[in-house]
Amino acid sequence: MAEDGPTGILPAHRIAALAEAGQIRPATPFDADQIQPASLDLRLGPVAYRVRASFLPGPSATVAERIEALKLHEIDLTSGALLEPGRSGGVYIVPLIEELALPADIAAATNPKSSTGRLDVFTRVITDRSREFDTVAAGYTGQLYLEISPRTFPIIVRAGSRLSQIRFRRGNARLDDTELKALHAETPLVDGDPQIADGLMLSIDLGGDDRTVGYRAKRHTGLVDVDRRDAYDMHEFWEPIAIRGRRELILDPDQFYILVSREAVHVPPDYAAEMVPFDPLVGEFRVHYAGFFDPGFGHSESGGAGSRAVLEVRSHEIPFILEHGQSVGRLVYEHMLERPRELYGQGIGSHYQAQGLKLSKHFRVG
């Protein structure tokens, strides 16, 4: 990909310009709040396919060709449909409403939305002839598909549901450690001294004193409609975790946890950030499904004053002990191509600004 000229993450007005130029091609007009400060929400199309297994098409096949070979059942999403977790459910592939015809110098990356990750719904975007999930090559033209795998709760989705988001970038926008230290000196990225090693290190808050430090998902619960807000009593779906004595938590590989970083994170207006979802250097567990942090997240200009990073945690294969203050992940920062005209938290329905430990927007706490 050519990198002549400025590099960076495209802000909302540049994303809108891509659509106006026919380089993002939605089958139906965008929802009013679909474009975020540095990303675009992606919407489910009207049909889902249950398939035998997850897949990547590879360089010689389209996703549609692989679906045809692997599909078990076709599901109409027009009026809503149930997607089940675990062995009774499986893997679902949904063509998305948004298609792309990107310029040769624009690539993209995708992640689950925060509310999707906090429901333990694993999603990944697939493109034709791709070798990687959640990566859209510069100049890509074609359909986008979403792989959906609910892990804990049965969910209701429908055409137009927004489970994933896409971020567009020109060139290599990532800050190296020297640049990250300089940025922190100019405008603090965390409270206190940062730990910087191939990104900004984050640690876990298991502070104890009988306060709730996390939530453990219950199994065999009712369903969750992904488009309903404040609709469910959290106690029917979640078990609060309080630490007594030694400040540690044993992760059961069969369980899903919502935990929170000890650090309050700041993302300055001219930057965006992303959590590295799985880092074997800090332990055999995954700490984040939804990885985008928009410009202004936790920042004083947009009412943040520091926001904790909520972590969606699963251990891999074996139980794993987390201790208070243990490093659990890395946040990488990228510079914006231009500053967004609206920041995260400024009148755009930003549910997670100034957050601490917080469940997804579907649940009522109290």
Question: How would you characterize this protein structure?
Answer:
The protein has 366 residues and is mainly beta. It contains four helices and 27 strands. It has helices at residues 12-20, 63-70, 114-117, 177-186; strands spanning 8-9, 24-26, 40-43, 47-51, 71-76, 81-83, 91-101, 107-112, 121-127, 135-136, 141-150, 155-157, 162-170, 200-203, 212-217, 224-225, 232-233, 238-242, 248-251, 257-265, 271-275, 285-286, 292-293, 307-315, 320-323, 327-335, 363-364. Strands 2, 4, 5, 7, 9 and 11 form a six-stranded antiparallel beta sheet that branches. Strands 1, 3, 8, 10 and 13 form a five-stranded antiparallel beta sheet that branches. A five-stranded antiparallel beta sheet has the order 18-15-20-24-22, with no helix packed on it. The protein is globular.
Q: Determine the number of helices (DSSP H or I, runs of at least 4 residues).
A: 4
- Kindly state the percentage of residues in helix: under 10%
Rg from Cα? 20 Å
Question: How much of the residues is beta strand, in percent?
Answer: 35-45%
Largest sheet, strands/sense/barrel: 6 strands, antiparallel
